[in-house]
Specification:
The protein is of the alpha/beta class. It folds into 2 domains: 6-213, Spore Coat Polysaccharide Biosynthesis Protein SpsA, Chain A (Alpha-Beta Complex); 217-323, no CATH class. It contains 12 helices and 10 strands. The protein has helices at residues 19-27, 49-57, 73-83, 102-113, 129-138, 141-144, 168-174, 185-195, 216-237, 243-261, 266-289, 296-323; strands at 6-12, 36-42, 63-67, 88-91, 96-98, 117-119, 156-157, 165-167, 200-202, 208-210. Helix 10 (243-261) packs across helix 11 (266-289) and helix 11 packs across helix 12. The N and C termini lie far apart (42 Å).
Amino acid sequence: MDFKKVSVIIPILNEEKYIEKCLNSILCQCYPREQLEILLIDGNSNDNTVSIIKNYTDKYSFIKLYSNPYRTVQYALNIGIKNASGEYIVRMDAHAWYAQDYILKCVQYLQKTGASNVGGPTVVRGSSPIQKIIAAAYHSPFALGGSKHYKEKFEGYADTVAWGAFQKQTLVNIGMYDERLPRSEDDDMNFRITQNGGKIFITPEIKSVYYPKDSFQKLFKQYFEYGMWKVAVIKKHKRPLRIVHLIPMLFVAFLFVFGILSFFSKPFMYVFFSVLLFYLLIGFYFSLKNNYVYGILDELKLMWAFFVIHVSYGMGFWVGIFKFLNVRW
């Protein structure tokens, strides 16, 4: 195997809970250290993230810290790309742990598949009780539509992959990340890659564990932003709406319209509660089938996680429709 230099890029903002575990897993990589650099791009953290990182930069010369005055992730990624000296770029997330051969496998699969972007399935786990519930939702087709990259054993070509590994030149040629997109920047990048003839490959040989938001409030904010900025990506590329986008926005519209009308009309009230009951029954069915929760209380919490994801994404999508109505991309 040809051990080309690899630049690991990690956008960070207030990651004091996760950054040590993340960095320690990278330091344990079996990839040759002399062919490795770690670039952390901080968006003005106001917790202990930077002081923790400085303990590492003082000890390891190949770990470098950069400032991101714009705070959001797309700027951080471009700062990292511009400062990367590696032929390959492996994007990582601070909310994750990585197997010892993660970087090695990324480079191997880039070289042997010829894909423009490779990565592993998004394996989601939690440490706190609520985080475990939210992690279970990620692996439910009812919550996120059964995307390929959330299937832990999936291998093959896909539309997108979490984080990803690339040749640096691929990112430069494609124009790097669109700095107008603080969310859905991955979807936009991967769409541009495939539109330009590139391929995206997922393999369970590339192993990592992602730790999601640890509260329903944070989950709501995250998926509201996902829904809103998904509209921007769809409009930018003039892509048709998919069913996974339509259902949450229609569900939110139904709850709003029929919820109000049910106060004034019994027929509307019957329809409202019938549809809501049907939704709850489907949610309960998928909660019972979920292999990551045990016990009726956790299954009910998982149903709530489903509801939070669907409603927040749908609300965000509606806001995005009006927010970007007159925006030209």
